[in-house]
TrEMBL record:
SUPFAM superfamilies: Fic-like. It comes from Dactylosporangium maewongense. Signal peptide: none annotated. This is Fido domain-containing protein. Pfam families: Fic. Residues 340-466 form the Fido domain.
Length: 473
């Protein structure tokens, strides 16, 4: 079975509420397993993952597993409609005894024996459908919203808090919960007929920089985000003595609860402080830096028996095996030659994150506990492609090109997660393509390089040159 990479595959973040509204799309939950068996890709379920120490992942077998997942998604979408593509969204469901479990976490980890795999697919689709039905019920409960500003503020605050809590609870606060939270809020803005095309900006202002993947949100954080969104939509700022009821669902207190000291309920700005755009600062620095003079021209080969970047990736507490598997792909691509492209970066990143696709982000991104913001604009993917193309320009010294592409990936922040690892792999590719493999890389990869200092960017290029010279000696 071969699935072409450009086959049309619906993406969850492109779905509208009309696409997923359970009231518009009839569904028989009792027949799901029979449907999955009937539409399963021809050729049977691929073999499950078998990791062999010293040999790593079998690339062809792994591609077959992801191709099978893509083919299953296409089949389910054809049978049920585009909403069904969310079966891979890693939305947890309840067992008969009430426990929350995740039935599908990607082709690599979830493909087991054939019948167990098909049952897992059916279970994941059912869990996704139940989540959509829960959202539809929540939307119906809160609509229509009152017109009076004060009442509208209270309604918006309660709705936003309920949405965030629902998504966080159902997703287990894993790496996918934050994008799903963003999407659910935008769906509600559309259903509530909030005018204008600035829904992304509204949601970014409310929750951007407040939450993190793999971290469950605190009740106070949920309340703060909900209040911020309600204030932005209604223009109402609650007074300091406007107390929320003393208990929330799951016993979460609000920042305005009477349970909290008065100091904690002091008036706060309805809009969070504006965080400077780190990506915009980097793009200015990138243009100003003297890359041609920051380091001298060097050429390979330059390597020893030691691979510094591989050693650094191997020491990761989580995901070391996936990062090293991606590094194998980078080595193969470097030996093949050719330019650095986003398609190559995405292939490596799919390996790093164990996901079927790793598209360029479509919203603003945040890092360092909300202290850095990477704004999104429609022209960013094309601008990033142009930057990647410059990574193999022989007119610029190799150390400068390697340093520049490392910072490009960090500050363009193209992926939803794992951008630091992606930056390290891009740097590795640019150097290895010309026969250079650093024997020591931890000092480079563990240092924070500021986005707004041209001299710092040039200093990184000089540091890469020094590491190359050390390797050569």
């Amino acid at each position: 079975m071969t699935i072409e990479r450009d086959d049309p595959l619906p993406r969850i973040d492109n779905l509208t509420w009309a696409d997923v509204d359970s009231f518009r799309h009839p569904f028989d939950p009792d027949s799901v397993l029979d449907v999955v068996r009937a539409v399963a890709p021809a050729g049977g379920v691929p073999a499950p993952l078998q990791y062999e120490p010293g040999r790593g992942f079998g690339r062809a077998a792994d591609e077959a597993r992801w191709d099978w997942q893509r083919a299953m998604t296409l089949a389910l979408v054809e049978r049920y409609g585009s909403w069904a593509c969310g079966w891979t969204a890693q939305m947890g469901g309840r067992t008969a005894d009430g426990a929350l479990i995740l039935r599908w976490s990607g082709a690599r980890d979830s493909i087991t024996m054939p019948e167990e795999t098909l049952a897992a697919v059916a279970g994941a689709l059912l869990d996704w459908r139940v989540f959509l039905e829960d959202l539809a019920e929540l939307f119906a409960r809160h609509l229509p919203l009152p017109a009076e500003p004060r009442a509208a503020f209270v309604a918006w605050e309660a709705t936003a808090a309920g949405l965030v809590a629902t998504v966080a609870a159902r997703s287990g606060a894993d790496e996918h919960w934050f994008p799903m939270c963003t999407l659910a809020l935008k769906w509600f803005l559309a259903v509530a007929e909030v005018p204008g095309d600035g829904h992304d900006a509204l949601v970014d202002a409310a929750i951007g920089g407040r939450f993190w993947s793999y971290v469950s949100p605190l009740g106070a954080e949920v309340g703060d985000a909900a209040e911020s969104l309600a204030a932005a939509l209604t223009g109402v700022t609650p007074p300091a003595d406007d107390a929320w009821p003393d208990t929330w669902p799951q016993d979460w207190p609000s920042l305005r609860s009477t349970e909290l000291p008065a100091a904690a309920r002091a008036p706060r700005r309805a809009e969070p402080p504006v965080v400077p755009d780190t990506l915009a600062a980097w793009r200015q620095v990138r243009r100003a830096a003297r890359w041609e003079h920051a380091a001298g021209h060097v050429s390979g080969p330059a390597r020893t028996a030691r691979d510094g970047i591989a050693e650094h990736l191997a020491k990761r507490k989580y995901g070391a095996g996936r990062a090293l598997a991606a590094l194998q792909l980078v080595r193969a691509d470097a030996a093949e030659g050719g330019p650095l492209t986003f398609a190559r970066l995405e292939t490596w990143q799919r390996e790093v994150l164990a996901v079927a696709t790793a598209p360029f982000r479509t919203t603003s991104a945040w890092a360092r506990a909300g202290r850095e913001r990477y704004a999104y604009h429609d022209e960013l993917p094309a601008a990033f492609d142009a930057c990647l193309a410059e990574a193999t320009d022989p007119a610029v010294p190799l150390p400068s090109r390697a340093a520049r592409v490392y910072l490009d990936v960090l500050f363009f922040h193209p992926f939803a997660d794992g951008n630091g690892r992606s930056a390290a792999l891009a740097l590795y590719f640019v150097l290895a393509r010309e026969g250079v493999v650093l024997d020591r890389a931890a000092p480079l990869l563990m240092t924070r390089w500021p986005a707004s200092d041209p001299r710092g960017a040039e200093g990184l290029a000089g540091f890469v040159a020094a590491l190359v010279e050390r390797t050569r000696r």
